What does this fold into?
Amino acid sequence: MSGASRYRTLGWFVIGLFVVLCLRLFHIQIIDHTYRDAAENNVLRYEVQHPPRGEIYDRNGEFLAQSVPSYDLMVVPKNLPREGFDTVALARIAGISTEALAKSITAAKSYSRSRPSIVVKQMTTEAKLLFDEGNFDGFYTLFRTQRSYPRKIAGNLLGYIGQVNDNIIQKNPYYERGDYIGYSGIESAYEELLRGEKGEKVSVVDVRGVVKGPYQGGYYDKSPIAGTAITTTIDGPLQQFAEELMRGKVGSIIALEPSTGEILVMVSSPTYDPDELMGRDRGSNYVKMLNNPRQPLFNRAVMSSYPPGSTFKLVNALIGLQEGVLKPGYRYECHQGYKVGKGVKCHDHPSPLNLRQAVSNSCNGYFCYVFRNIMDNPDYGGIMNGGYDNWERYVRSFGFGGKLGSDFASERGGFVPTSDFYDKGYPRWNSLTVISMAIGQGELGCSPLQMANLAAIIANRGYYYIPHVVKHIDGRDSLDSRFYEKHYAMIDREHYEPIIDGMWGTVHREIGTAGVAYVKGLDICGKTGTAQNPHGKDHSTFLAFAPKDNPQIAISVYVENGGFGASVAAPIASLLMEQYINGEVTRPELVEYIKNMKIAYPNYEKRK
Amino acid sequence: MRSANDKLGWSKIDWKTILVFVVLMLLGWMNIYAASSGEGESFTLSSRYGMQMIWMGISMVVAGVILLVDDIYYHQFAYPFYLLMLLVLVATLFIGKEVNGAKSWLALGPVAIQPAEFMKLATALALARFMSEYHFSLGRPKDIVGVGALLLIPIGVILAQNDMGSALVYCSFLIVLYREGLNSWIYYAIFLVVGLFVGSFILSDVALLIALLVVFVVVQMVGNRNPKESAIYTAGVGALSLAIYGGGLLAGWALTYYTALLIASAVMLLVALAYAYRNKLANIYLFAAMFVGSLLFIGAIDYVFNDVLQLHQQKRILDLFGLESDLKGWGYNVNQSKIAIGSGGFFGKGFLQGTQTQYDFIPEQSTDFIFCTVGEEWGFVGSLVVLILFATLIIRLMKMGERQNEPFRRVYCYGVAGIFLFHVFINIGMTIGLMPVIGIPLPMFSYGGSSLLAFTVLFFIAVRLDSQNSTIGTTYKPY
It folds into this structure.
């Protein structure tokens, strides 16, 4: 071959090699897009921006729950320096042991080498500043907020927050591993408002994971939207006072503003300091509470179902008046009880009594007559043919036997039996079969919220607003419309007067059962209850409102195993109403007496 | 013949080729700037781009000097320079500085140079001189041994320095040897060996065997012009292999199709040999021998790979063929490099806008992997421009060689063209995953004074020789 022809061959060879390079470049630069994605993965870091959770205020604008800054320590394992780093210094800053630090880094590596994992949760601002000085490659801090509860009250009412579990993540795409969610109380009921909206920051990082600045000038960033602040209807000081009075006792207090249905106080005792369910000790505290036989995490105020006891006589009396089978002037004899059938016992008292006196004195016999007259009303053809169903309709119109629709997701509705219930239990039954419901015993079950609502209905002379705990949501003019609707019990207004007069007598007349609740000038109207308890000592309950005209507060106090209504529940209710209306209590010795009262709960201790 | 007003002999300088060279050098500097400047830093000479600027200045001064030196000296000093550089190279073995495992650097006061870069130049000159001797012929064993010695001695010393990349560059002299008439069969054999090596890794056994059969039958057919017989042979192998495979299935033998095909081609080969013997077709024996040799070679590759090579060497080879990826080890560089270039897209991200470049994702970016910056920031368009400029430079150097009247000048120009070609193809091929990772610089682009200076000298000597080439028809004999 000649030189010229070899020159041509070589020329084509050179061109061929360059064409190969061009084709390969064409392939990886234009056809194959995986490299482009990989380049973005290399340099882009997506960081979630957590908004501060909405604050919760009491009705006077004081903090019930605050958000304070806290920092999570994050690690991206692939950015850790190969030669290792000062684990001792980092563990000291983060406030954990070096072993714990090593363990969480191992866990992070097994989760993902390139995605961030949490190493230490909820570091303080001081720890964060120390960390920033330390210059630890591969680690960074993530701003979050943490709950703090300045008054340390209303644990069950506010509820607690915790990290989402896998179940929640699956159901709701908003949540990611490590996010917090409200699990109970207000935190849960208003979760979507309180949590705000997460933002995202897209930054460019270099090969060592050092942030070089925002991606595309921050075009793809999304600012977090802070959680909405919520003002509750709770009266902080009053709530605190109520919790102090309930200390050592098991039970519940609900106080409402009758004219609005706003919940002023909601105590479920025993309660807990909500701060205990925050921060690092949350896990162990939570288990401790779960294992406490008195169940501090159980919100008795809306979840328990108690026999209402004598306070339920008010309902039966109102139904009798409305049905015309009872007149305020009717008198019935009672000597130590109602003697028909198995009979119902009663205490010593003058006899016969009229309606007002029977309410004040809580005569069992009197209300057995009233109850049987309602049930056996010939207008309905007997108890099994409609007499009972008619009564049941009335009872349900007071909000018993079903959820009231408050803003507590965990609210339960208690129990009002239907006639079917008895049809199934008894081949034949009559008004004597169900006579214990005349005095609020038997199958009836009510939540403290329902009982307080009854007090509000009577205070309002006939209607209620659904009890609720939220007064104002930032940026909104109004609450859910259901909280503005009047719900009427099926009783005409004029029938309330004799009942209210009887309740006034409970506190103010010699015949009354709760003289202990008297406060000069307050015109407290109340009704005691001593609910029989098959498992132990009677429950003490008191239902009241004040003042008699233009009532400002309606209250229900329920103290398990407290004995007579007058012995514990009535003084507590009285003190709270006095404090609320007058702004002070004038009976320090009574406060001391209640605070120091010891009640034994053998059946709770047994459960262990 | 120099005219009176052209004492320097500059009137015939190939300015166009110099322009290509200078443009490439300036583009190279821009990319070094992009790869090595930090954000918000003010311009400083102590940075890599600053140093490179100084080296560019030095190179241009040296280029000017080269253009002033009469071409006769390059011929005269070719051997002494070769010997001197060889001495320096050997000295480096003992007093050199070790960088990245290779003892190939020599400290000269404040600067360090890599003697291997200049050894290429010395070799190109010495080779040009040797091959332009009177009566030199690549057909003569004595001369071939001489050429081999000129090339293998520096290769040996450089390998002793553990600088694999610089040693491999001597492969580029295969280009000039081809131009000067080295037997084509040597090149066919090289292509066959390389093809078999690559094929044995990226193809399955059956596919490789079929490919071999097709290649040999087709080449044989073109050479002997016997399409009918070739078709019969091919059909015979196909039918026989299917028959053996099918029969094996029916008889329940554990027979793969590969085995069946191997048996079939062996049987048919015997038939073909018998046919060749009867018809006295000697070169069929040659093809048959090469075919059998290829099969044995493949077996040898398998044996060497599995039983001789160590695990890390195996991995490196597998990675090269894309069969396995070790992204934590050395495969990391190539992967990051492909990511950077691939993410450049059509128009690139713009000067100083490459995220991978600016945030240091590619190790060795301003040296061996400088092409990543081109690919990422200037995209396919920019890469194409650079490739076209390089191709132009290399083709023009070859053309330059062709127009020389003296073999010395021609051999030298081709030597330079070969060195450029090897560097450009291997370096860019490496950054896009076509070639193994061999640490050799991209001419005029990679950061480094020795390399820039060496390429400048290589190139400008070629230009100088060309400018003093006698016009066609005259017999200007300076030597």
Notes: Chain A is about 35% helix and 20% strand. Chain A has a mean pLDDT of 82.
